[in-house]
Design goal:
Layout lengths: L6 H19 L1 H4 L5 H20 L5 H33 L1
Helix pairs in contact: 1-3, 3-4
Protein backbone atom coordinates (compact mmCIF):
# COMPACT_ATOMS: atom_id res chain seq x y z
CA UNK A 1 0.00 0.00 0.00
CA UNK A 2 1.26 3.45 -0.89
CA UNK A 3 1.25 5.80 2.09
CA UNK A 4 1.23 9.57 2.06
CA UNK A 5 4.22 11.62 3.17
CA UNK A 6 3.44 13.66 6.24
CA UNK A 7 4.33 17.34 5.97
CA UNK A 8 5.97 17.51 9.39
CA UNK A 9 8.35 14.68 8.47
CA UNK A 10 9.35 16.46 5.28
CA UNK A 11 9.89 19.77 7.10
CA UNK A 12 12.01 17.99 9.70
CA UNK A 13 14.15 16.48 6.95
CA UNK A 14 14.58 19.85 5.21
CA UNK A 15 15.71 21.51 8.44
CA UNK A 16 17.98 18.53 9.14
CA UNK A 17 19.59 19.00 5.70
CA UNK A 18 20.50 22.57 6.61
CA UNK A 19 21.97 21.42 9.92
CA UNK A 20 23.93 18.70 8.10
CA UNK A 21 25.23 21.31 5.65
CA UNK A 22 26.25 23.51 8.59
CA UNK A 23 28.14 20.58 10.13
CA UNK A 24 29.96 19.97 6.84
CA UNK A 25 30.87 23.63 6.44
CA UNK A 26 31.97 24.09 10.06
CA UNK A 27 33.63 20.73 10.64
CA UNK A 28 36.99 22.36 11.44
CA UNK A 29 35.38 24.53 14.12
CA UNK A 30 33.52 21.53 15.53
CA UNK A 31 36.80 19.67 16.14
CA UNK A 32 37.07 21.63 19.39
CA UNK A 33 34.21 19.64 20.90
CA UNK A 34 35.59 16.78 22.99
CA UNK A 35 34.96 13.51 21.16
CA UNK A 36 33.19 15.51 18.45
CA UNK A 37 33.43 12.70 15.93
CA UNK A 38 31.23 10.52 18.11
CA UNK A 39 28.73 13.35 18.49
CA UNK A 40 28.64 13.96 14.73
CA UNK A 41 28.13 10.23 14.14
CA UNK A 42 25.15 10.42 16.47
CA UNK A 43 23.66 13.23 14.38
CA UNK A 44 24.31 11.34 11.14
CA UNK A 45 22.38 8.35 12.50
CA UNK A 46 19.52 10.64 13.49
CA UNK A 47 19.62 12.25 10.04
CA UNK A 48 19.47 8.82 8.41
CA UNK A 49 16.45 7.97 10.55
CA UNK A 50 14.66 11.12 9.39
CA UNK A 51 15.58 10.39 5.77
CA UNK A 52 14.25 6.84 5.95
CA UNK A 53 11.06 8.18 7.56
CA UNK A 54 10.34 10.16 4.40
CA UNK A 55 11.43 7.34 2.08
CA UNK A 56 9.06 4.85 3.69
CA UNK A 57 6.22 6.77 2.06
CA UNK A 58 7.53 5.72 -1.36
CA UNK A 59 8.58 2.07 -1.06
CA UNK A 60 9.23 -0.85 1.31
CA UNK A 61 7.16 0.71 4.08
CA UNK A 62 7.69 -2.02 6.70
CA UNK A 63 11.40 -2.46 6.00
CA UNK A 64 12.00 1.30 6.02
CA UNK A 65 10.06 1.63 9.27
CA UNK A 66 12.26 -1.02 10.88
CA UNK A 67 15.38 0.68 9.52
CA UNK A 68 14.14 4.05 10.80
CA UNK A 69 13.80 2.71 14.32
CA UNK A 70 17.17 0.97 14.09
CA UNK A 71 18.81 4.32 13.22
CA UNK A 72 17.04 6.01 16.14
CA UNK A 73 18.19 3.26 18.50
CA UNK A 74 21.76 3.46 17.19
CA UNK A 75 21.66 7.25 17.57
CA UNK A 76 20.70 6.96 21.23
CA UNK A 77 23.41 4.35 21.84
CA UNK A 78 26.11 6.50 20.24
CA UNK A 79 24.88 9.62 22.05
CA UNK A 80 24.96 7.75 25.38
CA UNK A 81 28.52 6.63 24.58
CA UNK A 82 29.51 10.24 23.85
CA UNK A 83 28.00 11.38 27.16
CA UNK A 84 29.89 8.65 28.98
CA UNK A 85 33.19 9.55 27.31
CA UNK A 86 32.65 13.29 27.81
CA UNK A 87 31.67 13.18 31.47
CA UNK A 88 33.84 10.25 32.51
CA UNK A 89 37.00 11.75 31.01
CA UNK A 90 36.41 14.99 32.94
CA UNK A 91 36.06 13.07 36.22
CA UNK A 92 39.34 11.22 35.63
CA UNK A 93 41.25 14.49 35.18
CA UNK A 94 40.18 15.79 38.63
Amino acid sequence: MFSVIQEDELITLIVACFVFLFILLKREDLKGIPYGGILILSYILLFLGWTVTVLEGFFLEKAMNALEHFFYMANIGVLMFWCYKFFYSHRQKE
